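README, section 4: Worked example with a bound small molecule

Sections 1 through 3 covered apo chains. Here we extend the same pipeline to holo records, where the ligand is supplied as SMILES alongside the sequence. The molecule in this example is coenzyme A. Nothing else about the input changes; the structure line simply encodes the ligand pose together with the chain.
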Amino acid sequence: MQIIDLEKRHIKDVYVIDTYYFSSFKEKLSLASALLFRRIFTSFRVAVIDGRVVGSCSIINLRDGCHINNISVDFRYRNKGIGQKLLLDIMGIAKANGNQILLLEVRQSNQTAISLYKKHGFIEYGLKKNYYPLKPRGKEDAVLMQKIL
Ligand SMILES: CC(C)(COP(=O)(O)OP(=O)(O)OC[C@H]1O[C@@H](n2cnc3c(N)ncnc32)[C@H](O)[C@@H]1OP(=O)(O)O)[C@@H](O)C(=O)NCCC(=O)NCCS
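The generated complex, written as structure tokens:
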């Protein structure tokens, strides 16, 4: 497996794998324009096996710091260590870019992701109440996490 920068040929695979983050037209457009204009995402990495994307992870620098935007692994390839390899890769890039802290938001119910982040030194520092929509109705809190790099 290789972890490399996203290229145009990977874009369809990324949409298919990361149906949560890239579910809306706006998010799909943001990925397409990131490729075209090399902006929006500070770094967008993909895990590739035999030319096929099996996971992705990106960071974005906002006013309050560097955020993990998405991390996602194809469900057929989960629990094989790919998620943590992507996380370590993107943490290395964020640090090399001079960031001292990495931030993220995650659904409170997403214990798989929370466990992954905690394993790699992220701590919870707050909640955003009713941040995520829930299907078919309702809202869910976001857990705010951070890691000193
Ligand atoms: C979260 C996700 C990226 C993890 O990817 P993965 O490749 O399966 O994870 P890894 O195999 O590298 O596992 C690393 C750690 O994650 C946690 N983890 C992974 N699967 C888990 C599960 N089913 N239950 C609890 N913890 C789990 C564990 O801490 C694990 O460490 P361990 O193997 O020592 O127990 C993957 O489940 C995914 O794509 N989920 C859907 C998208 C998503 O929710 N992204 C996060 C948005 S903030």
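What to look for in the output: Residues 82-96 form the longest helix (15 residues). Strands lie at 2-5, 43-49, 52-62, 65-73, 101-107, 123-133, 139-148.

Section 5 describes how to batch many such records.
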